[in-house]
Amino acid sequence: MKRGPALRDEPHDIIRKKVSFFGRPSNHKALKGRYLFGGPVWNHFGHFFVDCIHRLWALKQNGESYDGVVFLAVQGLQNIQTPEHLANAAPPKFLADLMTLLDMPDVPVIFVRDIAVFEHLDVPEPGTAPRCEIEPFYRPYLDLYQEILTDKLAPQIRTAPEKIYMGRSHLLNKGGILGCSYFEARVREAGVHCSLPEKLSLADQLAHLIGASSILFDEGSAAHPTQVLSKVSTEFCMLPRRANNESFGKAISQRAPFFLMTNGENIETLPDRFGSTSSPGGLAIYRDPLPVYQKLKKHGFVKGPFDPDAYRAAELADLDASGSKTPEIKEARTKKLQELRS
Length: 342
Description:
Layout: E1 6-7, E2 15-16, E3 19-20, E4 31-41, H1 45-51, H2 56-62, E5 69-73, H3 83-87, H4 93-101, E6 109-112, E7 118-124, H5 139-152, H6 154-158, E8 163-166, E9 176-177, H7 180-189, E10 193-195, H8 202-211, E11 214-218, E12 235-239, H9 246-253, E13 258-260, E14 267-270, E15 283-286, H10 289-298, H11 308-322, H12 327-341
Parallel strand pairs: 4-5, 4-7, 5-6, 8-10, 8-11, 9-15, 11-12, 12-13
Antiparallel strand pairs: 1-7, 2-3, 14-15
Helix pairs in contact: 7-11, 11-12
Keywords: Plasmid
Protein name: Glycosyltransferase family 61 protein
Region (Disordered): 321-342
């Protein structure tokens, strides 16, 4: 199997004005041996799959030659907000789960929380990145990952629901679509399986992504495990939350059939519960929900006519469910929704 580019270098300090690049004296003792840099590890399920796994091909190919694989703890997401949090951070469970599922070589895992020096550290090229193509050298590794998963998860894949909806009506405080509870109710009536991926094991999540014939999902982390797949026949249909969704479309469309249920011009975004207008936790409003419903019907996720009154009632209920930090923020969000619907 072809190996992609990797940086193999002899040890050296990065010095700026007699201190290390990190701003501390460069007097740390190097850990002897040769190690592989696995990448940064965000304590966030979606970011982990998008940003943190695409150097593991080098471990899969040549893991036995390394004294360990090095991951870098990252400050800034989900309960790791301060240097003190970082110092006490533990590797997220989904890191170990994924390495086990992919049959990665059994080498020591080093989770770096502070300055560390290694005698030899190989830094592989990522096989892909957000909004980028899959590198040609990387596709055979994704093929191998999927082959392993298909074999290992065969029983779960065989029994996966035919149609699945992965919604966010229970996560609206972290961002979602006003009116999603209406879509969810109609989807259930049509006999579609409504899944809460965070309640499933990683193995079952991957089995669903491989085994279902079609999956509808609200834009969010639930679809990011597709990053370890190469080519599946599952049809992925996304209810977008942001006008610019190329990060999802670019990634999934290289692996599976992908369809947007509406375009960016149909999306208006409310501030998140803290009042921020630039947060991924914002709430999407569909200016015209009827074409969205019609696309859902075309793809077999709903039946029957669209009820605009029930949809508007669901929007208000979803806004209440999302929560607002202050009464002023709630009032501003409600006013914007009412203006759009007047």
